[in-house]
Specification:
10 helices
């Protein structure tokens, strides 16, 4: 499209396909993430209650500790770097948001994104193998799993291999996880880490 019209936006340069420039970017990704919640039964969501909320906070804290445990021995000692890398372990979205909020270097932000991508792929690959031993076979356990693991793409793909009906439940709490991480890491977790390091 860009070579035909002499433009720079690819297929979106052709007037008939101009909408693809809007829908084909981040908005399309966000729509895909939100749409995973459709098909979830509100009664099942209400059943998880406090356990679902607890899974979100536990998952976020585990990621902070894991990020620090890997980053500190590798020479990253400032609270900003440690929290940004820990946030990346949470998800590859939370890492750059936290890094930008705290003023982390582009190198540390890149590491946080890489950590999130590695986690996402690991969750995708490992979920089918651990689902049966962990008893992830109903909406409540899928929501708890999504809340602890946190990566929307990882849990959705992993759950699709286990049971496609569980995808909306795991993805729903994982989506909340990303929002909660964007709030916790640059504020509460940063101040906690700064007190220790």
């Amino acid at each position: 499209g860009g070579s035909v019209t002499g433009g720079s936006k690819g297929i979106a340069d052709i007037p008939l396909f101009a909408g693809m420039g809007l829908v084909g970017g981040a908005m399309f990704r966000d729509f895909a993430i939100v749409s995973t919640a459709f098909g979830a039964d509100l009664r099942e969501i209400k059943k998880i209650g406090l356990r679902g909320v607890a899974s979100l906070f536990i998952g976020e804290f585990i990621c902070l500790v894991a990020g620090i445990a890997v980053a500190y021995p590798l020479g990253y000692t400032s609270a900003v770097d440690l929290v940004t890398i820990g946030a990346g372990v949470a998800t590859f979205v939370v890492g750059p948001v936290t890094g930008a909020a705290l003023g982390a270097s582009s190198e540390v932000i890149a590491i946080s994104i890489a950590a999130g991508v590695v986690k996402s792929v690991l969750v995708m690959v490992v979920t089918p193998f651990v689902a049966k031993p962990l008893g992830i076979n109903n909406p409540q356990s899928a929501m708890a799993f999504g809340g602890i693991m946190g990566t929307t793409s990882g849990t959705a793909a992993g759950m699709a291999a286990v049971d496609p009906k569980l995808v909306p439940y795991a993805a729903m709490t994982a989506t909340f996880y990303t929002g909660l991480g964007c709030l916790l890491f640059p504020s509460v977790f940063y101040f906690m880490t700064r007190m220790v390091f």
